[in-house]
Amino acid sequence: MRKRYKVLLLILAVFLALFVIAGILVGMYAPKIVEEQIRQNLKVKASVGKISLSIPFTVTLEKLEIGNLASIKRVSFSPNLISLLFGKVVIHGLTVVEPVINLEQSADGKLNLPVPEQKGGKPPQVYLTSIKVRDGRIIFTDRKVSGPGYQIIADKVNISVSKVLLPVTSLAANFNMSARFSKTDLKPFGSAVFSGWIDLPAKNMDAELEVKDMDITNFSPYYGNFISNKKLLSSKLNLLSTFKAKNNDLHISTDFDLSGLVYAQVDELAPPDLMKNTLDLFTDKNGNLRLKFDIDTKLDNPALSGDKLKKTILKAAMANLSSQSPEELVDKVTNIIDKYKDFGEGLKEIFGK
C-alpha cells in the first residue's frame, strides 16, 4: 500500500516538475513565437505582455496588442491535448477580457480587417466548445459617410456562446450578446440584447433581439431623409424582433416603436415639411409611431437590404391607417391642409406689403 502511495507521489512530483518547466519555457519563448505568427499571418505588428500556464492546463495571454486593430487585457483557454493527435484543435473555455476593437471603414468602403495569408496545405480544424467576451468595446469610424470619420462606440460588450448540453448529439449553441451604444463623449444613447439558440448545420434558430431607448438620430448619416426631410433632434426607438428558422426558412417578426420625436426649428417662412406631416398620419394621438411587420428570408443568406427594409416599414405604416378611426384621420388631414393654408396666407401678406 505504501509503495502505491510512493509511486503516486513520484508521478505527481514528476508531473509538477514538468509543468513548472513547461511554464518557464512558455513564459520565456511563447510571447515571441505568438508575436511572430501574428505578424506573418496578418501582416501587422503584435506584442504580448505575458503568457502563462495554470493547472489543469490553461493558457493565459496578457496585454495582447494587434497593430492598431485591437488591444486585449487577457485571453485564456484550455486546449484539448488528445484532439491534437487526430489533427484537430479543440479549445475549451475561450475567454476574452476587456478587448478594444478599432474598426475603420475607408472612403471607398473597405474595412481595416487584415486577411490571413493563405498557405499551402490544409489547415487543422478548430472547434470551440464555448466563448465568452467580457466588458469589450468596439469603436467604429466610418470615413465613407464623413471625411473626418463618423464614429459610433459599442461598449459594455458581453458575449456568451456555449454548446447546448442536451441532447448530447445536438450541434445547437446557446448565445447571449449585449452592448451599450454611445458617441465619442461616451454618453449612452441606447442598448441592445440578442439572445437565443442556433443550429447552423441544421439551419434552425430561435432568438430574440431587443433594442431599448435607442436615440436613432445618432445614425442619421445612414437613414438620410427616410424618416423626415426635417432634421430630427432626438427620438427614441424600442424594438423587439423574434427570429425563428426551420430548415433554413427564417421568419423575422418585429414590433417597432418610435417615440419622442423632436424636430429642429426652421424658418417660419419656409414651406411646411410634407414628409413630416405625412409621417404624422401614421402616428397615434401621442405622436408615437408603432409598427408591426414581418420579413421572410433565408438563414444562410438573409436578404435584408436597406431598400427592402424601407419598403417593409412603409407597408406597415400604411397598415396603421386601417387601425385609426375616421375621425382621427379627418382631424390629421384637416390639420395638414390648415398648415398649408396658413402658409399661403402668410405669403400673400408678405408680397402685399
Structure description:
- This protein is of the alpha+beta class.
- The chain is 28% helix and 42% strand.
- It has six helices and 13 strands.
- It has helices at 2-42, 81-84, 220-223, 274-280, 306-322, 326-352, and strands spanning 46-54, 58-66, 70-79, 88-105, 125-128, 130-142, 150-163, 173-182, 188-199, 204-214, 232-246, 249-263, 289-298.
- Strands 1, 2, 3, 4, 5, 6, 7, 8, 9, 10, 11, 12 and 13 form a 13-stranded mixed β-sheet that branches.
- The longest helix is centred in the first third of the chain and has 41 residues, at 2-42.
- Residues 272-277 and 343-348 have low confidence and may be disordered.
H/E element order: HEEEHEEEEEEEHEEHEHH
Number of domains: 3
Could you name the ranges where pLDDT drops below 50 across 5 or more consecutive residues?
A: 272-277, 343-348
Mind summarizing the main beta sheet?
13 strands, mixed
Q: Number of helical runs?
A: 6
Topology of helices and strands:
Blueprint: H1 2-42, E1 46-54, E2 58-66, E3 70-79, H2 81-84, E4 88-105, E5 125-128, E6 130-142, E7 150-163, E8 173-182, E9 188-199, E10 204-214, H3 220-223, E11 232-246, E12 249-263, H4 274-280, E13 289-298, H5 306-322, H6 326-352
Parallel strand pairs: 4-5, 4-6
Antiparallel strand pairs: 1-2, 2-3, 3-4, 6-7, 7-8, 8-9, 9-10, 10-11, 11-12, 12-13
Provide a compact summary of the structure.
The chain has helices spanning 2-42, 81-84, 220-223, 274-280, 306-322, 326-352; strands spanning 46-54, 58-66, 70-79, 88-105, 125-128, 130-142, 150-163, 173-182, 188-199, 204-214, 232-246, 249-263, 289-298. With 353 residues, it is of the alpha+beta class.
